[in-house]
Design goal:
Number of helices of chain A: 8
Structural class of chain A: alpha+beta
Number of domains of chain C: 1
CATH class of chain C: Mainly Alpha
Number of domains of chain A: 2
Number of strands of chain A: 7
Oligomer: heterotrimer
CATH topology of chain C: 3 helical TM bundles of succinate and fumarate reductases
Number of strands of chain C: 0
Distance between the termini of chain C: 72 Å
Chains: A alpha+beta (252), B alpha+beta (660), C mainly alpha (222)
CATH topology of the largest domain in chain A: Fumarate Reductase Iron-sulfur Protein, Chain B, domain 2
Number of helices of chain C: 8
Order of helices and strands of chain A: EEHEEEEEHHHHHHH
CATH architecture of chain C: Up-down Bundle
Largest interface: A-B, 77 and 82 residues
CATH class of the largest domain in chain A: Mainly Alpha
Shape of chain A: elongated
Shape of chain C: globular
Largest sheet of chain C: none
Radius of gyration of chain C: 20 Å
CATH superfamily of the largest domain in chain A: Alpha-helical ferredoxin
């Protein structure tokens, strides 16, 4: 297969950046998108040109490293998939493919298609956990949790932190990311003691990182490789309203 | 260390593999006495550091996978000052995240007769009696607490309708002791450790340095004093001092180029530690996982693992006629050869990984292989779907089925999956004592980076167990014993050792960039991988290993002459990162080959064709090889020194491992 | 987890503002229903008697007058938050995409809330000027019915009115569902389906109800 690639090139954070056009040919339909870029890079290196920088690691859709904005969509033309799990058989022979980095103010470009997503970690730092020290836990089966609840918590817990929700959102909101963690822990009895503080603190951090507001377009859930449902956002909203509108009986 | 300043000597004219005999390693800090009480008694005998003093002690943790993140979080909770270095753009990206199947623990929630002893026994037998009894028993003992802690962290393990934890069976065990979170157990456990780590970051106990590649370990007077790292964004080198250094950098399976490891996984930190004097234990012990998606073309960048748990319900078969090219559904039942069920009736499709992998290779070598390349066998779910229904199978393996379909374009609900073995995990790693400390004082290795607990073969669902055991429940105790002696050591990078290490690292980088050859790093890496896979993979023989040894030396020499690394060292340069890693793989590969050559027996993953039973099973030689091979590096193109740590079996009797 | 006092009031966070947006949105939607019910009286062939009585009631009843204050406040807050969000849009993504195929992952209604809001706002201003200001503040000698009739018989005004109603429909097509989602009321798939269905019905029905009136007057002139 043959493709014309329009790739965003940017030397570093200070550089203006621009698109450059490359042709690749002889690509097997069973090549993954990233392997196609590998092939391009091998050629560029051989030609003495600068290869394209892009993030990747596990290449099986779980580490959340990769993230390209392909033909106007986060992680490319298929819904609920990571870039590394996208195969060239999903493109038409001869197609023109536009490849951009994920764009958002909190995701500054490092080089070419590589962006800094550490803002997401800083949100987790504000409360995306249950404060338990190693060694202090009771027997695992002392806290029975209904299967349906555990399953639901699991659905929310599968977020891979790739930032596609932010990239796809017209407002560059990180709401689905935050909501996934809030909802995961809100489901579980272990998550209750810190529930009020967690949602408030994580939302405050999300704002101060410069993410936009959520306007419920649902683009995030369509692109989310972990299939985090929009019900996570509804759960966050409920928790946020509850945490702010009802009195905290134990607050000093 | 002057050898890296000058060009390496041309490949030695002397052919053949040689090594120097070293000492007997008898000091491994293993306690004596009753097995059940060893860890407890050992803990009680360790030195302690008072809380106000812990604040004065700095620990560097390299890597934030299950072992690294759990260790860093736990050390932070204790009050130590911890600095974590990761080459990823977030500590949540480590490859532990990709573990699918589950985590073993001797909880006996199933009432099926499980116990710490049985988990211990299964693990040591699964490792073909090449691991320490004390370590493995401790692992089984703390496994119980891991599950408790992880549940308290909010990890959504699978549950029964009654709300209690569910378990499933796994290869190499006749009990259901594997806890799981659908097909994403590693992800959930890692995110738990990551969250605990982030909590410590918020509390100010831990600092995480993203995009920092650790390129050398600084050793002064036999003690680890810090690291040299490169900021991958700016390219700047930094010297960082600490009272102790913990390496939690995972395995080196990527030496084979194609493996189930993440693309960035590498051996640089442990290899550099080895070059600084740390012993490397059993480098040739590499696990080859039986259930991976077969390679489909030259361009392929990695192999994808399908969880071993698939073998719980899937049946492995090949057509009874070699070269049968009919599509699988046209092959009638009586013409299908369920070779695992036939060869190993009591374990069937659930034999340990090494056995399943070799069996697949054997049937393919015999010409029964399927698929376009003939290097694959079928994994068939049609019986299980009939018996349990689509719904149940979906619940158990839904994401794996989807993944398979995405990659291959085939629908596993209708046609059996095609699988083939692939490099997956390295049992070998830095040699550590019972305290998880290498022979360099203050340098620790945990998780897959050390050699310790899995012997010559790791059982499924044990890697997660070991990583978390080391990080949550072992290192936080044992490291204090050393740190207690370091209270009055003033941290500084203004020493000859730091200056020298930083200078050497800079020179290594400059040299790579100055070669300006014609070939890419990946070309060398692919070539190295092919040599290792062919000669030091599923089965090995002396002749092949000798040839591999020569090939790797020649390849390394060519690498330093012909490689082309574009760009500069003062910027974000992914090719430079890769070149540094491949350079280290090229050195480590030689040690792997030497180790495989020297071990004239078969055990676990290590099948020497000269030493096998008539049925093709591994033939151990306990008389001569019941030891850990701990290799000391003596310089480039120099024979390494072999130190032997004898393995004493006081509680279990090494038997012929039979899964028949 | 540390318990810290949030630096900003919760109503000033992005989520808090969104909740205000949704709450005022729901309130304004109830107003739309009442307004529509009243307007439909225009269709009664009684020369405007019923409608004028209703208009009289609405402008004199003290309870309604109090509600009117709330209604104005609702509009002002809803619009203010909207302007705030619009002003923020560029800030969270200073550099946009060269190619953005948003149509593949979100509805046109959800992506055109700004456009529909602006059109509805312009309509609201014209509408208020024409009826509310004219009747209530300037003390127009005409009855409310006459004002309406005169306006609707002007094809340009009617066209403007109908187009505005289409855009109001756009706004509601997303706004209805979005409000319930933001208030956290969508608890499960079933409720989600009901809300989406009701939202579609509302977004179609209410603007259609409004738009029928000018069309009715326009047709009558021929």
């Amino acid at each position: 297969m043959r493709f014309t690639l329009e790739i965003w090139r940017q030397k570093n954070a200070q550089d203006e950046g621009r698109f450059e056009v490359y042709e690749v040919d002889g690509i097997s339909p069973n090549t993954s998108f990233l392997e196609m870029l590998d092939i391009l890079n091998e050629r560029l290196i051989k030609e003495g040109k600068e290869p394209v920088a892009f993030d990747h690691d596990c290449r099986e859709g779980i580490c959340g490293s990769c993230g390209l904005f392909i033909n106007g969509r986060a992680h490319g033309p298929l819904p609920n998939i990571t870039t590394c799990r996208l195969y060239m058989r999903h493109f038409k022979d001869g197609e023109r493919i536009v490849i951009e980095p994920f764009r958002a103010k909190p995701f500054p470009v490092i080089k070419d298609l590589v962006v800094d997503r550490s803002a997401l970690d800083r949100i987790i730092q504000k409360g995306g956990y249950i404060s338990v020290n190693t060694g202090s836990a009771p027997d695992a089966n002392s806290i029975p949790i209904p299967k349906a609840v555990a399953d639901r918590a699991f659905d929310y817990a599968t977020c891979i932190g790739c930032g596609a929700c932010v990239a796809a959102c017209k407002n560059a909101s990180a709401m689905l990311f935050v909501a996934a963690k809030v909802s995961h822990l809100a489901m579980l009895p272990q998550g209750q003691p810190e529930r009020r503080q967690r949602v408030k603190r994580m939302v405050a951090q999300m704002d101060s990182e410069g993410f936009g507001h959520c306007s419920n377009t649902g683009a995030c859930a369509v692109e989310c490789p972990a299939k985090i449902p929009l019900s996570a956002i509804a759960q966050l909203q409920r928790d946020y309203i509850w945490a702010n509108l009802t009195p905290d009986l134990y607050a000093r | 260390m002057s050898d890296i300043l000058t060009a390496p000597a041309p490949a030695q004219t002397r052919t053949g593999i040689s090594w120097r005999e070293g000492t007997l390693l008898t000091r491994n800090n293993c306690p004596e006495g009753e097995l059940e009480k060893r860890w407890t008694r050992h803990k009680d005998s360790l030195r302690l550091v008072a809380p106000h003093n812990k604040r004065k002690l700095e620990v560097i943790v390299v890597g934030a996978g299950l072992a690294g993140a759990s260790a860093a979080a736990s050390l932070g909770e204790l009050g130590y000052r911890v600095k974590v270095f990761v080459y990823h753009n977030s500590p949540r990206r480590a490859h532990s995240i990709a573990a699918q199947g589950g985590i073993n623990a001797a909880k006996n929630y199933r009432n099926d007769g499980d116990s710490v002893w049985r988990l211990f026994y299964d693990t040591i037998k699964g490792g073909d009696f090449r691991a320490r009894e004390s370590n493995v028993y401790r692992l089984a003992e703390v496994s119980v607490k891991i599950i408790d802690h992880c549940v308290a962290q909010g990890i959504p393990f699978a549950r029964e309708y009654g709300g209690y934890l569910d378990t499933r069976s796994f290869g190499g065990a006749q009990l259901m002791r594997t806890f799981y979170a659908r097909g994403q157990t590693g992800q959930q456990l890692l995110l738990g450790a990551y969250a605990a780590l982030q909590r410590q970051v918020e509390l100010g106990n831990v600092q995480v340095f993203y995009n920092h590649d650790v390129l050398d370990i600084v050793v002064e007077e036999g003690k680890a004093r810090g690291i040299i790292c490169r900021n991958l964004i700016t390219g700047a080198l930094h010297s960082v001092p600490a009272h102790a250094v913990v390496l939690a950098t995972g395995g080196y399976g990527n030496a084979y180029y194609l493996s189930t490891n993440a693309k960035l996984s590498n051996a640089t930190a442990i290899w550099r530690a080895c070059r600084r004097g740390a012993y490397f234990g059993n480098p040739s012990f590499v696990q080859i996982h039986p259930t991976c998606i077969p390679q489909s073309g030259e361009y392929q960048s990695k192999l994808t693992l399908m969880s071993e748990s698939l073998r719980n319900d899937g049946r492995v078969w090949v057509p009874r006629t070699p070269g049968d090219k009919r599509p699988p559904h046209e092959i009638p039942e009586h013409q299908r050869w369920y070779y695992l069920e036939e060869w190993y009736p009591s374990f069937g499709n659930l034999v340990p990984r090494d056995i399943a992998s070799r069996a697949a290779k054997r049937v393919c070598d015999m010409g029964y292989g399927v698929g376009p390349t003939g290097r694959a066998v079928y994994l068939d779910f049609s019986d299980a779907i009939k018996r349990l229904g689509k719904e149940v199978i979906y619940q158990r393996y839904g994401n794996l089925f989807e993944m398979y379909e995405e990659i291959t374009g085939e629908n596993p609900w209708e046609t059996p999956m095609r699988i083939y073995p692939a490099v997956h995990y390295t049992m070998g790693g830095l040699w550590v004592d019972y305290n998880l400390m290498t022979n360099i004082e203050g340098l620790y290795a945990i998780g897959e980076a050390n050699f310790s607990d899995h012997g010559a073969n790791r059982l499924g669902a044990s890697a997660l167990m070991q990583g978390l055991a080391d990080g949550y429940f072992i290192l936080p105790y044992t490291i204090g014993d050393y740190l207690a002696t370091q209270l009055f050591v003033k941290l500084t990078t203004d020493t000859a050792a730091f200056r020298e290490a930083e200078k050497e690292t800079q020179q290594r980088i400059d040299r790579l960039l100055s070669i300006q050859g014609k070939r890419t790093v990946d070309e060398f890496h692919r070539e190295l991988g092919k040599v290792l896979w062919d000669e030091c993979g599923l089965s090995r023989n002396a002749q092949g290993l000798l040839s591999a040894f020569e090939q790797v030396r020649a390849l390394r020499e060519r690498f330093w002459r012909e490689v082309y690394v574009p760009g500069t060292g003062e910027e974000f340069n992914q090719n430079l990162e890769r070149a540094l890693r491949v350079a280290d793989f090229l050195e480590l590969a030689e040690l792997m080959i030497i180790d495989a050559y020297h071990r004239e027996e078969s055990c676990g993953c290590h099948l020497r064709e000269e030493y096998q039973t008539p049925e093709g099973e591994a033939l151990r030689n306990d008389e001569e090889f019941a030891y850990v091979a701990a290799w000391e590096w003596n310089g480039e193109n120099q024979p390494p020194t072999l130190h032997k740590e004898p393995l004493k079996f006081e509680f279990v009797k090494p038997t012929v491992r039979s899964y028949k | 987890m540390r318990t810290t006092v949030e630096p900003v009031s919760w109503l000033h966070t992005s989520v808090g503002r969104k909740i205000i947006m949704a709450a005022t949105g729901v309130f304004l939607m109830t107003f739309l229903v009442v307004h529509l019910a009243g307007n439909l009286l225009l269709l009664r062939a009684d020369g405007g008697a019923a409608f004028n009585a209703y208009a009289e009631f609405m402008s004199t009843n003290p309870f309604i007058r109090v509600l009117e204050v709330f209604l104005f406040a609702g509009f002002v807050i809803h619009i203010y938050q909207g302007i705030y969000f619009i002003s923020r849009e560029k800030k969270s993504r200073p550099k946009g995409y060269a190619l953005n195929n948003a149509g593949a992952n979100s509805s046109i209604f959800s992506r055109t809330m700004r456009l529909s809001a602006i059109v509805v706002l312009v309509f609201l201003i014209v509408h208020l000027r024409h009826f509310f200001v004219e009747h209530r503040l300037l003390g127009s000698p005409y009855t409310m019915y006459d004002l309406c009739k005169a306006a609707f018989e002007n094809p340009w005004y009617s066209l403007f009115y109908v187009v505005s109603m289409v855009l109001l429909g756009f706004h509601l097509a997303h706004g209805f569902y979005s409000s319930f989602q933001t208030l956290g009321l969508i608890l499960n798939r079933r409720i989600e389906a009901v809300i989406k269905w009701a939202g579609a019905a509302f977004a179609l029905g209410v603007p259609l109800g409004f738009a029928i009136i000018p069309l009715y007057f326009l047709v009558k002139t021929f």
